[in-house]
Amino acid sequence: MTGQGLDHYQKLDVDKQDNDDALRAVYDEWAKEYDHDNDATLGTISQPKTVEILSAVLEKHAKILDAGCGTGLVGVELAKRGYAAFDGVDLSAEMLRYAKTRGYTKLFQYSLNDPLPISDGAYDAIISAGLFTHGHVKTHAIRELIRITKSGGYLCFTINEGVYRSQAFDKEIQSITDDKLWDIEKLEKEAYMTKEQVQAYYCLAQVR
What we know:
It is a single chain. This protein is α/β, with parallel strands linked by helices. It has one domain: Vaccinia Virus protein VP39 (Rossmann fold, 3-Layer(aba) Sandwich). The protein contains eight helices and seven strands. It has helices at 4-11, 20-41, 46-55, 73-80, 93-99, 141-147, 161-164, 169-178, and strands at residues 64-67, 86-90, 107-109, 123-132, 149-160, 182-193, 198-207. Helix 1 packs across helix 2, helix 2 crosses helix 5 and helix 3 packs parallel to helix 4 (73-80).
């Protein structure tokens, strides 16, 4: 049985143009059951998988931003691999309340559809698991994440297979590549939510 938060998310009109308020309300309600639903209902494996991909190229002292950190499941995996300097940003205050116990240096509430109040090149790496999916954050956010990543730093993120082409993430990735803003090191479709039989594109890119 799913929790009410997941039920409400699945009924949400995620294709609305201005959806941040509705998403925030759903995730605030879902926060207390999110970890359980993530594992037992959805079988989501993107958190450990993205950390594994990033850790292969990133030094332990690196400063990392977890974009769309939710309850902090990526933070748990980063800590397991010896990372200690990681911040998180998320739309939901309730999600962030759970993330506070998971090793983040700083957490702040903000929509990733908007320009971030973060200076250029502030982070050695950005990691994001589950941010780019149905009705969440648009393609333009990728360039904003590049902006706050230092030259030579890394982006590691997922894109749900259901929006990869329908919301033109494939075209934006190619456009960023054509603009010579990054070098793609990995872009492959792999398992994402195993109990829902959903895959995602896992992208690792080095910023120029």
